[in-house]
Fold this protein.
Amino acid sequence: MSVLILAEHDGHKLKKVTRQAVTAARSWQASIHILIVGHHIAAVAQEAAGIAGVTEVIQADAAHLAHPLAEDVAGLLVEHAGHYQVILAPHTRFSKNVLPRTAALLDVAMIADVIAVTGPKSYLRPIYAGNITATVESSDTIQIVTVRASSYAAVTDDGTANIASWAVSATTPLARWLGEKRNVSDRPELATARAVVSGGRSLGSAEQFEAVLAPLAEELKAALGATRAAVDAGYAPNDLQVGQTGTVVAPELYIAVGVSGAIQHTAGMKDSKVIVAINQDPDAPIFQVADYGLVANLFEAVPALVAALRTSAPR
Amino acid sequence: MKILVAVKRVVDFNVKVRIKPDGSDVDIAGVKMGINPFDENALEEALRLKERGKASEVVAVSLGGTANQDVLRHALAMGADRAILVETEVNLQPLGVAKLLKAVVEREQPDLILLGKQAIDSDAGQAGQMLAALLGVGQGVAISAIEIWDEEIVVTREIDGGTETLALRLPAVVTADLRLNEPRYVKLPNLMMAKKKPIQTISAAELGVDASPRLTQLKVADPPPRKPGIKVGSVQELVEKLRVEAKVL
């Protein structure tokens, strides 16, 4: 029996999260297959064949898979699932769409967002937005698993796997892909940004939120984030919300500006590598999770920080 | 068009959950509970569709013990026409939830089923997709917009680096992301009126579904704590620390 990885790619290259999923797949000490779903994906398959430890690369190539629907990909996986003990993917919007559907069709549970494989059928995963970790054991014959990529190192190249193909059925009548819109913002995406600058209700208005935080975000090439309180007050759109009910982030650098540190917010950012808090209230709970706390008026401290970053030694 | 909305009762998002002394599970005795926030977005959208004349009836359903009546009352107070409680003491996991909801869908025959994209306790994010699979219908997952056409709905959903738009044949299952809408506040008179609306109760056994868990929780633990931080005295000191000590600049 083998482990099948559902690859993430952009049509030209594998995404790094796929290489991180290969490291997770090694936990089972079984042969590792990678499935590439898409259209004109020969280059991606070639790249996957070079990954150390991968024994087989499978292409599922069809015009309608250029923008794959969950209905189609789940159907494909179910057809071949009998050959695998584990079907695994990095925990992304694509796999979160496809794999629960696959699991239900196979009548098995799915284990989502795994941060460690602790046995052939047991896993460590965060619950309550990472405030608690749970160890769970599955009783199913096929394990359907997504892994949190940042918990695993990426595998490098040192392999020569075979490349095979699966026949692809006609597309589903249940759904049609109509189009997509790519974000054109100069700022990086919140969920994957290297740095995040977040603001709370202390910013006082939508105008000040933008005027104070945007220069800092630009200087750090950071994404902008906001607390639920700031979103509720209308200072920031709700797609900026960081927290349990917003986006959960774990950047290299997280700067919380005028953020009190409610549980709902810290649950979504406390896995950041370095956390900076700037707040006038020395007793604000945000300082309990911050590596570096600065008790100061944000309207003075943030512009000073921007100026200091501009004038200090180049990176 | 009839819409079924599934709502889960979860620990309130502002509560810091604690672990039982034996480490077997989280301790939710006496903790403030409420409707799962994403399910509230799902319900809000169903109500807006009705208010725009696109839907004729909105039915809320919840699975669990008698205590779940409180989230159904909340749903009725927001404006749901009817509420159904599927009573079960089983430890429900996403596959079991999907199986029970499928049985409810078969009884109620809704054209559209709305759920939250995930529950903020187990963070599984699976029930909607699993329900769609079991019903053999299309799915729109983590949507930020929905439009009703004639025989189809059009949904916008988040993908990495942007959004995509899908047309789904009805009936379909759709799960709500936070940015779909901002749920209305429940006014006190509505809450009082909701107390008079009946909640239909069905026992899970009556539905003839095996919703038993597939996963066993072996233990729960606190994540490793962050190492204590320091306070810096000035912006200059902060930049210095970030550059030299943390090496993140």
